[in-house]
Amino acid sequence: MSEYVIDKPEITGLPVAGEDALFPVRRVYCIGRNYAAHAIEMGHDPDREPPFFFQKNPNNLDPSGEFPYPPHSEDVHYEVEMAVMLGKGGVNVAIDDAMDLVYGYALSLDMTRRDLQGVAKKMGRPWEIGKAFERSAPIGPIHPASKVGHLDSGRVTLEVNGEVKQEGDLNQMIWKVPEMISYLSEYFELAPGDVILSGTPSGVGPIQKGDTMTISVEGLGSMDVKVV
Question: Domain Fumarylacetoacetase-like C-terminal: where (predicted)?
Answer without folding.
Answer: 28-228
